[in-house]
Design goal:
mainly alpha; about 0% strand
Amino acid sequence: MSSSQRSYSGVILLIATIFWPVVVPFAYLELLNFQLKYSQEIQLLKNQADNSNKHENYSVK
């Protein structure tokens, strides 16, 4: 890499390091809001997956 590319890489790494503690909590809050908003649908899908796994286990015997 040339010296200018190394300088750009260093600047980008510095910016990413500075913003990392700010971005991660916001991403986690979005994940929590999504889970709260769609909790019923998520639980329904989990139950369907559990039921299909149980039926597959019984049919194998």
